[in-house]
Amino acid sequence: MKKIIFIILSLTFSLVNAQTLVKYGETTDGNFYYQIDTVQRNGNLVRVWEVVSFNKTQLDKKTGKNYKSIRGLYEYDCSRFMNRNLSETLTQESMGKGSVVFTQTVTFDWKYSEPGTPVYDLNKSLCN
To answer: Which residue from 15, 48, 90, 113 has the fewest beta carbons nearer than 10 Å?
Structure first.
């Protein structure tokens, strides 16, 4: 009986923590995903958690450590078609997993979403 309860609790915990990642782009460097269940709209602004999973290991210049993915909170301005990063965490494994290499919560400056990039496509999709 205890085994069954443990299994049920484990499955429930897994479902609650499951990320619903949707691939929204791909470049020669890697794949881009957003977590669909984190999309928050407030007027012309949209916030969403994203993951960039690189094909090759990257080097973080601040720490001198290697990382394979970035998980970050991004904000999109639908009226100006711009975006900015609000926080980011670099991890050693693909898909935002593994040990944390570096994390920061800093509001970056707004920048225009460049046509022909995955970020542009996501900006367009989130704002329509």
So the answer is: 15
DSSP secondary structure code for residue 36 in this structure: G
Query: Of 94, 111, 106, whose CA–CA distance to 58 is shortest?
Result: 94
How many angstroms separate the CA atoms of 74 and 3, rounded? Answer: 41
- How many angstroms separate the CA atoms of 25 and 27, rounded? 7
Report all structural domains of the chain as residue ranges with CATH numbers, in order of start.
20-127 (2.40.128.710)
Q: What global pTM score does this model have?
A: 0.81
More confident residue, 15 or 56: 56
Instruction: Please report, to the nearest 10 degrees, the dihedral formed by the alpha carbons of residues 71, 43, 116, 48 taken in order.
Output: 10
Rounded CA separation 99/48 (Å) = 22
Of 65, 80, 70, residue with least CA distance to 50: 70
